[in-house]
Amino acid sequence: xxxxxxILGGTGPAGMGLALRWTRAGETVIIGSxxxxxxxxxxxxxxxxVGAHANVTGEENSVACNAADLLALTVPFEGQAxxxxxxxxAFKPGSILIDxxxxxxSGIGGRASRTLGVWQGSAVQQTAELVPKGATVVAAFQNxxxxxxxxxxxxxxxVIVCSDDEKATQQVCALVxxxxxxxxxxxxxxxxxxxxxxxxxxxxxxxxxxxxHGGIRITGLPAHAYHGQRENG
Length: 233
Prior knowledge:
By secondary structure, the chain is an alpha/beta fold.
């Protein structure tokens, strides 16, 4: 893909992991942050790891949002609504927003292995209510370990992609497949993201218990259901 990808709130572990992997794959990446300086420092770290040829820059969130129509949101749930309301005027018409948010209870002092109830049904459905009309929201990457994503080894995880727009789903599946080891699976309608978000809390509990960076693998589907690496399928 030649279009730039802006990662909003991209200086945290999840955002940096996606920025690293997509930059390595040759994509043009813009890291967004509340602080333009912090975003540029993050971009410099990615470039140091990938090489001088890396096409990655850093900007304040609204500038990053306005510079691309392919966006990824990687902020904690407690900051999701505030950021989206601030960025609403910066969205380009027809933008696709990939949302990796999970409503973990840790955001309000609870356990990271529990999720909060969201009135809209899920964090990503809340996002769909907050973005401008005409923007498409796609749920993806909730079940990927941010620590593993920031590493150098191939991932061991399937990414369930949920959206109400089939074309957007296919575009995001193609982005997932750029990361070595990841496979994308069309998970159906956006409302199914509420189930995917619950899996994240389960994985966190398992990883705490077993001191790992586990993901999920879906087995037994036809080969055409998987987009990306197929070493296990």
